């Protein structure tokens, strides 16, 4: 295991989407003032991923947590990443590299070998950092998984770290979920729970006081604090977050612009569009729904381009998108880019059989899936696209990261040697995830959309990542008993 001088803290939750990731992010920011801190999550199941400087793929939450701690994200911070593909199958990413597509049963058959990967990653982090802030996954008390759980019980047993248990009051039953989780955890883990945190509370925390005191009396575990419901400019961790997104955010955005993002069945990296939520009404449209009259359409990335393309055709969404051609800008990111082309050739990598598929035909590009090989890299490109959207920023630099299979041939690129744009300059495809994190791209798009609609453009007040992390840290620091947290870390 790690060096004995390495301190550890483990944050577990009573369920998914209770706020474990965001709390770890805040703690990483605060604790980095005293320690050299690294985040860690043994196993993550998420379609929102990130590419490190070394071209390794990890969950986006650990990348965010690392940046909050002021360190570079590495594959050791999330040694196992599961990317669901549907049909009970996930792509298994080991130490940032695609390993295999496995069913749940086949994956758990090799869980002892996977645990060795986890141990190695922790050992390497322990050599570099003074404190590792670890995160569990889902609910900690999944009693059917105790013999093969590497991320909650497995990490707890491996490290014997002090545990903070987080519950979400917004969904109700927070006292029962906290008490029940403690009761169901194995005895050798239960004793390491050193504090509770209640998250996403709307109202006066004083109302909770009688319940907090009773919970402490019943369990002997202190409540470290109550965190309010808050919304920050920090990417969402996983697919659970997309369900909580409002379908109408016009009251929260700056501009009277409607952007429709197609909610693909196997959508990935929907965090690409969260920067636009501050500026426009971003709504997620299911393939079977009416597209309405958006001012812009975005087809996002997907874990399986061919399957999602076929779903769009089966529901008629492809026809709805094609009817909007020439009326509104249409963007395709990664798999969405591939769908906008003329043809897609699958050698069996995507859908199991060799076949050619007809795309939407809005871009003069062709894509081939020739081998089980993924492009994963961070890139910087110059805007070379012609047309009305990017005319003010042509020649400027944009940043992004690529995570895709397949190669696409295009006669007309959009960003350096990447992507494609049609002759009108209003249909754009690119492999660049994170495109809308570039303020110049966001501004160029919003100026075009507001001018075209004839409404006033309201620019955003830019917020840096560092400012967002500081704001989160201030909330966490003000609401939690940090003295007790520091004490449990030192005692570890």
From TrEMBL:
PROSITE patterns: GATASE_COBBQ, GATASE_TYPE_1. Pathway: Cofactor biosynthesis; adenosylcobalamin biosynthesis. The active site is at 334 (nucleophile), 433. The keyword Membrane does not apply. InterPro entries: Class_I_gatase-like, CobQ/CobB/MinD/ParA_Nub-bd_dom, CobQ_GATase1, CobQ_N, CobQ_synth, GATase_3, P-loop_NTPase. Residues 10-230 form the CobQ/CobB/MinD/ParA nucleotide binding domain. Coiled coil: none annotated. Keywords: Cobalamin biosynthesis, Glutamine amidotransferase. One of its GO terms (biological process) is cobalamin biosynthetic process. GO terms for molecular function: ABC-type vitamin B12 transporter activity; catalytic activity. CDD domains: CobQ_N, GATase1_CobQ. Residues 258-440 form the CobB/CobQ-like glutamine amidotransferase domain. It holds the Pfam family GATase_3. The keyword Transferase does not apply. Catalyzes amidations at positions B, D, E, and G on adenosylcobyrinic A,C-diamide. NH(2) groups are provided by glutamine, and one molecule of ATP is hydrogenolyzed for each amidation. PANTHER family: COBYRIC ACID SYNTHASE, DETHIOBIOTIN SYNTHETASE. Belongs to the CobB/CobQ family. CobQ subfamily. HAMAP family: CobQ. This is Probable cobyric acid synthase. It comes from Methanomethylovorans hollandica (strain DSM 15978 / NBRC 107637 / DMS1).
